[in-house]
Amino acid sequence: MCILLFHKWYIDDGVVAGPIAAIARVLTIIQDGGPPLGLYINITKCELFSLSDLSTFPDEMKRSNVPHFEILGASIDFCQRACLGPRLEMGCGAGYTNSQSRPADVLVPNWDLGKPAAFDLSVTSMLHPSVLLEASMTAGSAALVAENRKHKYNDRKCEELGWVFIPLVVETYGCWGAAAVAAFSKLAGCLSTRLNQPKSKTIFGIYSRLGIALVRANCRAILSRLT
Asked: What residues contact residue 194 under an 8 Å CB cut-off, 6+ apart?
């Protein structure tokens, strides 16, 4: 028996809330009982919110708690809709075999004069002591510091691979770095052609979705620290 505090369903989408044990039981029921009915759960599209231990759940679900995961997903979606063929976490061809050393969160083929672009997403705080003073006087200074740091560690890797390295850096309060602004402008041009709509409308949609994703990520970060 599952004692849930809340559950709502619409076609093949659902939301459930309750104790960790009950949510785990719901997941088991869906995974075991769904396939005979032709229903298969896509763990990578599930989101899990909790202040408790999540060790009993698949890692794919817990990835949604990573601060920039939603923003990364939105960026990939924009590239897919623009038919740019994005690929996740690339760079092992030059010996960069783990997620910490690979220069690309997202690889976008044929981005600039036939060269692929390596998008590396990062969320940075302007409240860090090392940038607090400058950030209080100049908007985007924390993003600039993070961009320079990314370039220092990843430019050489991308040159070896024949890629263009583009850091997509955003401050926790929503200010994007210059490289990200330029990249989103170019992406909006590709996407507006596909959608047959003005580029200005496309840019507005991109920043709106990214802004909502950032706010949600900030809320999760705050909630995860409450005990």
From this structure: 81, 82, 83
Dist. CA 158–CA 165, nearest whole Å:
6
Spatial CB neighbours of 100, under 8 Å, sequence gap ≥ 6: none
Task: List the one residue out of 120, 187, 129, 186 whose CA is nearest residue 147.
Answer: 120
Tokens representing 131?
A: 């940038």
CB 120 within 8 A of CB 107: no
Q: pLDDT of 128-158, one tens digit each? A: 888 888 888 998 999 999 999 999 989 998 9
DSSP state of 149: H
Q: For the chain, percent helix, then strand, then coil, each to nearest 5?
A: 50, 20, 30
Give the burial class of 15: count Cβ atoms within 10 A of its Cβ; 0-12 exposed, 13-18 middle, 19 or more buried.
exposed
